[in-house]
Amino acid sequence: MRRKLLTLAAFAAGSAMLLSGCAPSAPAGTGADSSDSADDVTLKVWSWRTEDIEKYNSIFDVYEKENPGVTVEFEAFQNTEYNQILTTGLAGSDGPDIPMVRAYGQLQPNIVAGQLEPIDGKVDGLDEIAPSVIAGAVGKEDGKTYAVPLATQTLQMFYNKDIFKENDLEVPTTWKEFVAVNETLLANDVTPIALGAKDDWILPIFADIIGSGRYGGSEFEKKVLDGSATFEDPDYVASLQLVEDMKKYMTPDVVGVSYTDSQIQFTSGQAAQFPGGSFEIATFSTQAPDMNIGSYQVPLPPKAVAEAPVTPAYADGNFAINSKSPNKEAAFKLLNWFATPEFGQLVADDLNQFSAVPGVEYSDKVMAEAWDNYEKSKAPYLLLVNFRYGEPLGTAVLGQQVQKMLLGEQDAAGAASTLQTGISQWFTPTK
């Protein structure tokens, strides 16, 4: 079945209309729920995943075959422009029936604006999704659920198994072994760690991969939320110091290396390791299908608060219902399907993502290994999960501060202090 795909050319032609808020009005007779009673219905689904257009089309083919009369029209917009386009679309009359929406703090503006339909009691299976994941789809003020979570992203260290073998290296299980691995690679003229520090959004991810176990992961989360600890806590400062300690294992001009360049460093074999999210797996498999990739949890450093290595994670992406959709009955039916194991398995198999739906099996070896590590010992990606509900965003502040650390313009204590000052402008502890 043919669907409308938003290409860059189509976006260029229509962006002025979208961004000016002058989207075409809906055809006459399409008031709220009017098309629910029709034999045929077209559901517009919007996303920022331009790289997954064909995969989503394949997934929705499955749904259409099971639901004759339903056409799912999938449109994908550029990630960097999506938030503004979605806000404009939801404010007008020609937006999507089902938008992919952000999680946690970045979801709240759409909720506050009344643009999304609450789904509590209308979607089966939500209580089966992990509380930490469903939290990314819940309104901060009213506690209502507004979306079905799509995926869980885990953060870990990826490594090139062939490079490890060529250098007689094993996956490190202690911090001493971790340092030894990096020293050996450095001595053998192999860049130990690929990091795109020019793009500061990746730096808080790196900080948590290296340091979450040092500051205490979930236990520290509880303390900082209830006010019994702050980001100036010595354990958190020590975790940031680890980031600076790792600088010697990166490209000398690491702050000049873009995120895309760091991916190429890894997939081309120029670097042995890549600290990143599970969202990288699909990219790596496309860029280097023959590459022998593994992943591991970074071992605990000296004086770590956690008792075992951890894998930080967060919910990524949700599917919601536009409160102005004229097709709410059909939209709720599709949203219910998003919460089923059938859809969850398609997310795993076709999108190479960790589904938010429990009970999904991962046949891909790289995914299975990363998921097993996560299941052993979980932790939140702290700044994204809890500190993006106000301005400045915690991730934005720390990203800029880590850049300065790598440039020699800031130390760990100063970075932690700046982070605490930034989030204190809007964050109030629960106590």
Written description of the protein model:
The chain has helices spanning 8-20, 53-66, 79-91, 108-112, 131-134, 161-166, 175-187, 202-215, 218-226, 234-245, 259-267, 280-287, 328-338, 341-351, 365-376, 382-386, 394-406, 412-423; strands at residues 41-47, 70-76, 98-101, 147-160, 191-193, 271-277, 293-296, 311-320, 354-355, 378-380. It is α/β, with parallel strands linked by helices and 431 residues long. The protein folds into 2 domains: 8-151 and 314-366, Periplasmic binding protein-like II (D-Maltodextrin-Binding Protein, domain 2); 154-313 and 373-423, Periplasmic binding protein-like II (D-Maltodextrin-Binding Protein, domain 2, 3-Layer(aba) Sandwich), CATH 3.40.190. Strands 1, 2, 3, 4, 5, 6, 7, 8, 9 and 10 form a 10-stranded mixed β-sheet that branches. α2 runs antiparallel to α14, α8 crosses α10 (234-245) and α10 packs across α18 (412-423). The model is unreliable at 1-38 (pLDDT under 50).
Estimate the global geometry from the Cα principal axes: globular
Under the CATH scheme, the architecture of the largest domain is: 3-Layer(aba) Sandwich
Backbone structural class: alpha/beta
How would you name the CATH homologous superfamily of the largest domain? Periplasmic binding protein-like II
Our estimate of the beta-strand percent is 5-15%
How many domain regions?
A: 2
Determine the CATH topology of the largest domain.
D-Maltodextrin-Binding Protein, domain 2
Q: Give the SSE string.
A: HEHEHEHHEHHEHHHHEHEEHHEHEHHH
Pfam families: SBP_bac_1
Protein name: Raffinose/stachyose/melibiose transport system substrate-binding protein
Keywords: Signal
Organism: Conyzicola nivalis
